[in-house]
Every structure is written in structure tokens, then in C-alpha cells.
Amino acid sequence: MKKNNTKFLAGGLGQLTIPLVAIALLVIFNLIRDPGFFSIGIMHNNAGNIVLAGNLISIINGASELAILAMGMTMVTAACGGQDISVGAAAAIAGSVFVKVLKSADSIGGGTVIGAFLLACIVAMLFGTFNGILVAVFKIQPMIATLILYTCGRSIAYWINGGATPTVESPIINAIGSFIPGIPIPTPVLIVVVMGILFKLLFHFTSLELFTQSVGINGSAARLNGINSTFIKLLSFIILGVCVAVSGSIGVSRLGLINHETLLLDIEMDTILAVAIGGNNLGGGKFKIGGSIIGAYVIQMLTITLYAMKVSSTDVKAYKAIVIILLVVIGSPVVKEKFGKFMSKMLENRKKVSVKGAEES
Amino acid sequence: MKMNNAKNREPLTDTQLLMSITIVIFVVMYLIAMIFLGGGFLHAQQIFDMLNDNASLIIVSCGLTIVMIGGGIDISVGAVTSLVVMSCVLYLNNGGNILVSIFLAVGIGLAFGLVQGFLISYLEIQPFIVTLAGMFFARGMTTILSVNPQKADHEGFAKLRDAKIEINALGYTAKNGNLVPARMELGVVVALACVVLIFILLKYLRLGRNFYAMGGNQQSALMLGINVKRTRFLSYILSGLLSGISGYVFMLHTGAGNATNAAGMEMNAIASSIIGGTLLTGGVGNVAGTFFGTLTLTTIKKIVVSSGLNDPWWQSITTGGMLCFFILLQSVVLSKRSKKKKQ
Amino acid sequence: MQEEVLLQMRHIEKRFPGVLALNGVDFTLRKGEIHALMGENGAGKSTLIKVLTGVYQMDGGEISVEGTNISIRSPQDAQNKGISTVYQEITLCPNLTVAENMFIGREGGAWVKHKDYEKRADEILTHLGIPARSTQQLGNCSLAVQQMVAIARAVDMNCKVLILDEPTSSLDDKEVNMLFDLMRDLKAKGVGIIFVTHFLEQVYEVSDRITVLRNGELVGEYLTEELPQVELVAKMIGKELDELSNLGDTEEKEHKDSEVLYEASNLSSTDAMPFDFSIRKGEVNGFTGLLGSGRSESVRAIFGADKVTGGSVKIKGKPVKITKPIDAMKNGIGYLAEDRKRDGIIAELSVRENIILALQVMNGLFKPISRSEAEAFADEYIKVLNIKTASRETPVGSLSGGNQQKVILARWLLTHPDYLILDEPTRGIDVGTKLEIQKLVLKLAEEGVSVTFISSEVEEMLRTCSRLIVMRDRHIVGELKGADLNQTQVMKTIAGGEA
Prior knowledge:
The structure holds 3 protein chains of 3 kinds.
Chain A: H1 2-10, H2 17-33, E1 41-44, E2 50-53, H3 55-62, H4 64-80, H5 87-104, H6 110-136, H7 142-160, H8 171-177, H9 187-205, H10 208-217, H11 219-224, H12 229-255, H13 267-277, H14 289-308, H15 316-331, H16 333-360
Antiparallel strand pairs in A: 1-2
Helix pairs in contact in A: 1-16, 2-14, 3-14, 4-9, 4-10, 4-12, 4-13, 4-14, 5-6, 5-7, 5-12, 6-7, 6-12, 8-12, 10-12, 13-14, 14-15
Chain B: H1 3-7, H2 14-36, H3 44-69, H4 77-93, H5 98-121, H6 127-145, E1 150-151, H7 155-162, E2 164-173, E3 179-185, H8 186-204, H9 206-216, H10 218-223, H11 228-254, E4 256-257, H12 265-275, H13 287-306, H14 312-342
Antiparallel strand pairs in B: 1-4, 2-3
Helix pairs in contact in B: 2-13, 3-8, 3-9, 3-11, 3-12, 3-13, 4-5, 4-6, 4-11, 5-6, 5-11, 7-11, 8-9, 8-11, 9-11, 12-13, 13-14
Chain C: E1 5-16, E2 19-30, E3 34-38, H1 45-52, E4 60-65, E5 68-70, H2 75-80, E6 83-86, H3 98-103, H4 114-128, H5 143-156, E7 161-165, H6 173-188, E8 192-196, H7 200-206, E9 209-214, E10 217-223, H8 229-237, H9 241-246, E11 260-269, E12 275-280, E13 284-288, H10 295-303, E14 308-315, E15 318-320, H11 325-330, E16 333-336, H12 340-344, H13 351-363, H14 371-384, H15 401-413, E17 419-423, H16 431-446, E18 450-454, H17 458-464, E19 467-472, E20 475-481, H18 487-495
Parallel strand pairs in C: 3-8, 3-9, 6-7, 7-8, 13-18, 13-19, 16-17, 17-18
Antiparallel strand pairs in C: 1-2, 1-4, 4-5, 9-10, 11-12, 11-14, 14-15, 19-20
Helix pairs in contact in C: 5-6, 8-18, 13-14, 13-15
């Protein structure tokens, strides 16, 4: 009975059930509240481009940085059984490096932007390596190890920026942060798609997925099968570093400036949440990147829905917390088991009642 | 300790070892500051200032230490502190009663502890996620109560806030020849009381010892006859309760509620606990260590400022460096120890 | 000797899905005796212990203590009823002091009476001659002392029945003697001790009676002095002595002509004593000896599974360096680990992923096996090895033990090794699968693969191996081949001393 119930709850979709159900509920709720909520309009933006607009677009666009970070965080979670809480701070560093290079150039051309991004990537990967060495070599729990960079990361960004909030003005940066002329889809969304494809290719052309899962599920067996788990753990942090650089650069491009204090503030919490809502076990092991991406969109859709209900941006957190707790309580194994027992008891009682009823009649 | 121990010295327990390291480093650091920087470091008021500014951090760190000893984590403590400040200020400003406001603070903390503890212990949901949601909820509720800073203008409260304990013996003579006594706020008394009480709880009460057992080896604790679920539940309740008290102390210090109050306090509290020798793996730690961990963190910031490095970023960079140093030191010390035992 | 019955277990039955782990087992423990419970892997002794301590609930039978029938619901319940267990892996808290560990979980009141406990603990420790001080942190004591503290705790809880589950496996001789003195002391006080071990000498040194289990059934209960060591081994392994001597020669295979594939001299690891060993192409050899004799540790050293600390290795005459598993794999060595759950399967991954894992690791990170290729491999081996699984995408953790083992076998076969090490491949799986695996080993040898086969069932090894290396107390004590390759000789060598 118990087995049947969990199977039923888990459904054929396995770990994606919870995030998909959450999205479905949010969609239905919004459609009832406002049938036009998801309508997509076409309009001209300031630059005169034809672009798509509407709540759906702002949800998908707004979740871009979160979705990218969630992809990397999933790898770290799977391999190390813990989370990196320094992603926001590291993104501020990467963003600062990005701006620093752009500012140092005389004119901002395509080459400069690529160079700036590559340097940001390298810096973020170095910080990822620092975290990774603490975790993989010194065997310190990820949360504690990354607490160091969490504490001082934004100050390093401040130092890079020389204490100011430098701005960059360039059509290219503007295009990265909003729209590329002629393409009606926001560029950050396209970058998410590219990152998703890159991960897909990574898993297709390497056996990283298999190795990471093996290390996360059963480290001892992975070792006896010749997997170098130190390297795999380190690699997961380096991959997360790339994601950090990408989302940091997007964040900077959106505003055209780097503010080390506010860039992607508190995003580490949302990122971890996205991974958890995506049905990934925070204790490591089997993972689905897709789940984490959906998790990111669930969080953003929830936020935008609350905004649409005139909840102020600072109050959103409280409602978000309630939804999160509901989701994890429903997903908790103990609750599933109790619920299963309760259901079987109910069925039994009903049987008894019907038998009784039959006897009486 | 007893006389005979001097002859027959026991090797230190892990907890004692890590705590001793912290205390030694703190004392050495402070001495160096006194010798090379002089100035404020030569006055007792420096220590009192550090305590005045960090009383509420010390209190939440104690709560976090309890949870971490039991092998868990609570990142809602800073947000709960902030919520308590805002609630109490608003209540007092609307003609509330001081005594009731204290109950309100403790009640809010307890409520968070109860709900989070229940979800973590009895529904077995990951503590990080539960307390993250708790943190979101508390921060959100704070801004729902008021986005704008609220200053407490309650008369009785103002008296309480301004009450200072003055110790002449530790004061110093100012340039104009007047004696300036060392001043300590009421919150510090509360914080010190919390440290002492939790110290007693962890060392001499059955419950405290059960926290250690649970964090040391949960399976063993179960086999030894400890009700692990209830013990874990109680650890989160205590942490919630202390967050409530911390909120009140915070309000006593600042006298105002602000949505950004105690921002990042949870991470400072975790850092204090770690520097004080508490391991996130559980089973090892001590509030006395945490107390000195908080002081160490504060001292390093003071030293940075006194050295003329006024840019705020120096503070967090040295804090990060300090944290890195302690984490690596502990990792090396403990792994050396376990290797030694194997041989 | 007192003959008062303390504990009686009658017709105990315990079923696991697909396996009858205990089939009507009787066990009797008298007051003031040390009773050894013997049997090889899968014999059911640990299941019996777990039923007695409330970890498992029995499916049939009854238990009585001092004549009253009792039911045991949990380990806690067992303790309250005077049945205490000291496990091989210490179940105390390493971060607490000795005194705290002795009294935690069983004291009243809110306060920890440190002074009281320390005084009482010191009294008990001195009384029992345990070299520890009450204020020491338990984790800083040696394993032997930790074990004794666990016993002291049990004794102080007025236990009537004390179960010692493999208490000596991590102790040295001196520590073992200390433990035995303690056991004799307790025996004199009327405690009944159940002693589970795989060290035969220790059984003869300290026990009064022996109960032997095999395949979940009771073989018999004997007075220790009336049961010679060789007979005990025979009873554990499953052939009566007469029958053994009548057994004919096993099929003889000589490999003198084939080249030496693997050769190690003075090889040692953190867990294995230095040893010499070589194997020829197409040869099947075995490491035998009771559990804990060092047989598994030796083959782990060959594979580089534990940190190799010395010695040299040649493969096909060429010197090679094998310090970690990947080195061994690249040199054509495969290793099926003893503990399937801990070191073998990746439980949540599918059959397909588990099968291709080792080959994939050898291919490296950048040459992934394509999905279709992997599916073909999985299908092939599911068919060849007759793996019973719903599909190739089923998580391997949900398969039965025998099928999990076949998946791991498939994993190594797929790497086409020259030399395959199988450590207890037939442990805890059904008879049919056992036979299949034995046949497979012989088939591989015919194809030119060298195989090292380890099993606790000597009969199985005699059927498959042409050479047996016998280990005792972490040292190789004999090498049997040809005419010597029979059960009587094997048992004599295992048992050692006078037969």
C-alpha cells in the first residue's frame, strides 16, 4: 500500500513532479485571477526594436541569472552533497572584473566584451577552485568553506571597483542586458538557452554526469571503480565558477553598471532553493539540471505573481516562505508515509463501515 | 579542575582543544593590539564597547552553537532578531507595556523555534531549507510591519535603553581631568547571563549532554537510549528562544526598528561559532568558545580600523581571512589527531 | 558447572524477501557460561543476534529469559530486559567522556552528576581492570578500551545476557587477553555471554560451549572440549569429516606452460601484511582462510584499493606501479568488492549505468559511451548473465542481491580484464545464482582470463580453483594444489596446529 502510494505521488515524472505541479498550480491560479495574465504583447522598446512583452516574458527573463546559477549549483550539490553560498559574492567579483576590463578599453567593441567576459570567467573559476580545494582536498563542508568567500567576496569586488559603482555605456552591453536589435526575445533568455545547450553537450560529449552521480551517491564504490572523486568535486566548483561569471556579466549588462553591494544580492539562497524545488537531493547524488531550471522559474513565477497581486517587493519573501514550506512538507518522505498510512486506514474504515452496513441491512 | 589532575593530566577533549586555540589567539591578538596600536585598546572601555555593540550577536551565536553541536544549522536567527525588533518597537510605540513587550519578543522567537524544530525533527525536512524559509518569512514579515525605520519613543523603554552600568574602577581619566567610568549596557548583562546559562546547560544538564551525543553520532545516541527527535526539537526551540531575546537586546542597543536590522547576522553568528571551535559536523563546541569567537571577530575589525585602514572592505576581507585561517587550522588539527589515534 | 538455563530461543524463524534467513533455530544459554556462536557468512548468526536484540522482529518462534516468555520490540527494550550487546563497530559517542558514555541515556533527573558518574565509572573501570580514566574523551582511547567501556556500561546495567559481536577483530593479542580476563570475570559473576567471532583459537581459549549455524539452520550445540577444531571447521563449512575424506580428487588443471600474468613480491598495504603472490594466464586460484584472516585485505592490495605501502608488481614480466584502482584497471585487473552495498553498486543509478561504469572510467571523461552503445552492452549482459530486472533502466538498488552481484560482474566483464578478482561473489545470494557464477568463472578461465576467487564456502573454491592460498592471522600459511586440494587438507591448514 505504502509503495503504491509513493509511486502514485512520485508519478512517472519522478523528481520533476513537485516543480511541475507547482508551476501548474501557479499558472491555474493566475489564469483564474486574471485571464490575461499570460498574454504576450508586441511592442516597440526605447531603441525602436520590436520586442515581446508581458508577464510571461518578464518571468522567463527575470529568472535568467537564477537559472544559470542553479545549473552550476546542481553540479556542486550532486558531487559534494553541500551547497556553495558564495555565488552572489563571486558574481559581484566577476561582474566587477567584467566592467573593469570594459572601462580600460578605449572603445567597446565585440572583442573587448569577449575578452572582458573571458577574464571574468577565469577569475570566477579561480575562486571556484579555491572553494573546491577546501571542499575536495581539505574535506571541509561546502557551506563552511564557501562562507569565507561569502564574507569577503563583495569587499573584493569593492576593491576592484575602487569603491565606486562604475557605469558602462555601450550598445553591445545594452544588447546583452536587454534585446539584440531584430530579435524580439530578451538576450538573457537566449543565454540561458545557450547555457542549457552547453550543459547538454557537456553531458553528451563527456561522462561527467555518470561520474558526478557516482561520486555523490556512493563515494566508496566510485573510488573502487577508479573515479578520482577529488577531481570531480573540484570540477563541479569550477563549472559553477563559469555559471557565476555568466550570470554576473548578465546582471551588470542589465543595469549598465556594477554595484558590488546589490548585484545578485541574496541570490545564493534562491539558487539553493531552486535546486531543492527541482527535486534534487541537497545531500547529493542523482540530479536533474532540468529540475533546477524549472525550480528557478517556479521561484520567479511566484515572485511575479505576488508582484501582480500588489505585494511589495520587500514583502514577497514572507509569502515565498510559506509556499516553499508547503512544497517541502508535501515532498517530505515522512509526510508521504503518514499520508499513505492514513489513506489505507481510511480505506479500511470505509470497508468496515460498508461491511457493517451490509450486515445491518 | 582538581589537584590530582595536575599530576595526572588528561589530554584535552576536541571541544576543549579548539576552544583553547581560540582563546589563546584572541588574547595574543589583543595583546599585540595593545602594544602596537595602544590608544583605545589600553582602556577597558574598548572591551565594553565591543560587548555593547555585539550583545545580540553573542546571544544568537549561543543559540546557533547549540544547534550546530547537535549537528544542525539555523540560518533564520538574524531575520528573527530583526522581526522581533520591529514588532516590539511598533508595539511599544502604540502604547504597549514593557513587560508585555518582553513576552512578545520571547514569544516570537519561541514560535519560530517550535515550527522550525517540528518540521526538522518530526517531518525530517532538511534544516537548511526549513530555516531558509524561516529567514525569508521573518524578513518579509518585518517589511510587512513597516518598510520605514521606526524609532521607539516609549518613555519607559527610553529609560531602559539609556540605563548603563558604570564601573569607576575600570574607567580612565579624560584630558580635562574628569573620570570617565567604563559603561556597559543592560543588553550585555543579558548576553553574559545567556552565555553562563547555556554554558551550564551544555555542561551540567542532561539535555545539554544529549545535544553532544546526538551530534557526535546520531545512531549511537539512539542506541544509548536518547530520544533523538525530541532532543533535536529542543535544540531548535532554544535557538528560536535565544533569537527572540537577541531581538530585544538589539532593540535596547539601537532603540529603533529597521528592515535591514541584523542583516547578515546569521553568517556572523556561524562565523563566531566556527572560530570559537564549533564544528558543523556536530558534537564539538562550546559557548565559551563562541563568546571568544565573537570577540575575536570584533577585535580583528577594530584592529583593522585602528590601523588606519578605514575602507570598510578591509574589515570583511580580514574577517574572511581569519575565517579561512581558523577553518584550515581546525581541519589540520583534527585530522592530525585522528591519525595519531590510528597508530 | 551451573546448568541453570538463562536464555532459551526456540524455533526462531526470520524471513527476508526471497530468503529464509533463519529456519527454526534453537539456542540455549546457561548462567555463567561463555557460549560461542559460530558460522560462516550467511549462516544466520548475525540475524539471530539481531532478533535477540530487537533490531529485527522474528517471524516465528519464542524467546524466554529465566523461564518467562518475552517479546523484544527494540534494542532499548532488549536492554531493559537484561540483554546487552557490544557490537564490533562501537556504538558509543566518541566526543563524550568515558564516564558520560557509561551513564548517558539511563540516568534520572535533569542534571548530569559528573562527580558521581566519574567516581562510579572509575570504580567500575578499576574493578573490571579496564585501563581507562573516567574523564578521558572516549575517542582518544584505543578501540579495545572503547569496546571494554561498552562492556562496562552493559555490566553496570545489570545485564544477564551479554552479546559480544566480533569484539576482538580490531584488537591485538595483549588487548584480547585483557578482554578475555574481563569475560571470565563476568562469567564467574553469573552473566551468560554469547561470543560471536571468527577466530578459532579464541573460541577454544575462552568458550564453554559452541553452537554452529549453517545456511540459516542449526547444525548443533557442542561442549567446546569435546569438539576438535577440524570438526568445528567441517561443521561450519558443511561436510562431515568422513564424507570429506571420501571426496575424490577435483579436476586437475596445470598451468605450468602458460605465462605468469601477475606477480607481486613483498606487496603490502595499510591493511595487508607483506606477501608474495603470482598467477598464470587462465588460472583460477583462491585465497582462503576464515573471515579476518587477511584474504580480502591481500586482494585489495593487489587492486590498489587500500593505500599500497610497499612491494613490487610485475605484469607479464614488466614492472608496473599500482597504487590506486585506476592503475590496476588500466593494467587489465578487475575487482569485485566483498561488500556489495558499500563498495559495489551505485544504488540509485540504473542497471545500464552500473554496467558501463568501469569501462567508462577506463575510457576517461572525454570518451563517453553513447547511449545506444550503452544500451546494447546492458542488453547483452542482462541476457548473457541472465540478470532479472524489470528493464535496463531500473535502479540497481531495487534488484535482489544475486542480480545486483551479476550487474557488478557484468561491469567488470565489459572491461575485458586479463585478471579478475572476485571477493565473495556468491555471498548472500541464492544457490542457483551461485552455480551460475561458478560456471562463469570456469568459462572465463578457459578463455584465458586469470581469476582469483574468494569464498567462505570451501567446497565452492575446490570446484573452481586449481590452487588455494591459505591465510591465517594475516599471513599466508600454506599453498595447496594437486593432491592436497581436498577439504580435509584445507581445513587442517585453516585450523592450523594439531588436527
